C-alpha cells in the first residue's frame, strides 16, 4: 500500500477529531434537554431570567434595538404557533378529522398544537441566547428611533392576536387541554357495604349474648 493510500484511509476511514468533538457535545446537549423535559416550571424560569438579563443589558447599553425588535417578532410568531392547532380546522370537513376541544364536547379530545410546549421553550431560549450574543458585536447596533419600533410591535401584536382570537371563535376551539372528565358514582354507593357490616356485627352480638 502506498503512502497516499494510507493517508486517504486515515482521513476518510475515521472521523476527524473536530467532528467527534461536536458529535459528543451534541449528545451531551440532547441528554440535558431530555432530562429537563418534565421540569417545565424550571425551564421557563431560566428563560425568563435570561430575558430579564437581556433587557437589562440592552437598557444599560442603550442600543441594539433592531435585534430586540427582531427577537420580539420571533417570539410572537412562536406564541401564535403555540396557540394554533396542528391541523387547520378550515382544511377539514365537518364530519372528518379530529374535533378540537370545546366546552360543548362531551368526549375528551386533547388539543394538539402546531408548536409543542417544549419546542416553544427551546426555540424561545435559543432566540434569547442568539440575541444576547449579537449585543457583543457593534455591527448589529443599527441606529434607529426605538419608539417607532415599539409602536410597530404593539400594532403587530394587537392585529395578530385579534386575528387569532377571531379564528378561535369562528371554529369554536380552545388552545388548552382540560383535564379528562371523571365520573363519580352516587353518594350512597358505600351504604350497602356499611349495612352488611352492621348486620354481621349485630349477628355476632346476638350469638355472644345467648346463654
UniProtKB/TrEMBL annotation:
Any one Gene Ontology BP term: retrograde vesicle-mediated transport, Golgi to endoplasmic reticulum
Pfam family for this entry, one: Rer1
Keywords on record: Membrane, Transmembrane, Transmembrane helix
Residues spanning the membrane: 41-60, 66-83, 144-161
Location in or out of the cell: Membrane
Its membrane topology: Multi-pass membrane protein
InterPro entries in alphabetical order: Rer1
Superkingdom of origin: Eukaryota
Cellular component GO terms, alphabetical: endoplasmic reticulum; Golgi membrane
Family designation: Belongs to the RER1 family.
Function: Involved in the retrieval of endoplasmic reticulum membrane proteins from the early Golgi compartment.
Name of the protein described by the UniProt record: Protein RER1
Provenance organism: Hucho hucho
Amino acid at each position: 500500500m502506498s503512502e497516499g493510500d494510507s493517508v486517504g484511509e486515515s482521513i476518510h476511514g475515521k472521523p476527524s477529531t473536530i467532528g467527534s468533538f461536536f458529535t459528543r457535545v451534541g449528545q451531551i446537549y440532547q441528554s440535558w434537554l431530555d432530562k429537563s423535559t418534565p421540569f417545565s416550571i424550571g425551564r421557563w424560569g431560566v428563560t425568563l431570567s435570561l430575558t430579564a438579563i437581556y433587557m437589562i443589558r440592552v437598557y444599560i447599553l442603550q442600543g441594539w434595538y433592531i435585534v430586540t425588535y427582531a427577537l420580539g417578532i420571533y417570539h410572537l410568531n412562536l406564541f401564535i404557533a403555540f396557540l394554533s392547532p396542528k391541523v387547520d380546522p378550515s382544511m377539514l370537513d365537518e364530519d372528518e378529522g379530529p374535533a378540537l376541544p370545546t366546552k360543548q364536547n362531551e368526549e375528551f379530545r386533547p388539543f394538539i398544537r402546531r408548536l409543542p410546549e417544549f419546542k416553544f421553550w427551546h426555540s424561545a431560549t435559543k432566540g434569547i441566547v442568539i440575541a444576547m450574543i449579537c449585543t457583543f458585536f457593534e455591527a448589529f447596533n443599527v441606529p434607529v428611533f426605538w419608539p417607532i419600533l415599539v409602536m410597530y410591535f404593539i400594532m403587530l401584536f394587537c392585529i395578530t392576536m385579534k386575528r387569532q382570537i377571531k379564528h378561535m371563535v369562528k371554529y369554536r376551539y380552545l388552545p388548552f387541554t382540560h383535564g379528562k372528565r371523571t365520573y363519580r358514582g352516587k353518594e350512597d354507593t358505600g351504604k350497602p357495604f356499611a349495612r352488611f357490616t352492621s348486620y354481621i356485627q349485630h349477628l355476632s352480638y346476638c350469638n355472644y349474648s345467648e346463654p
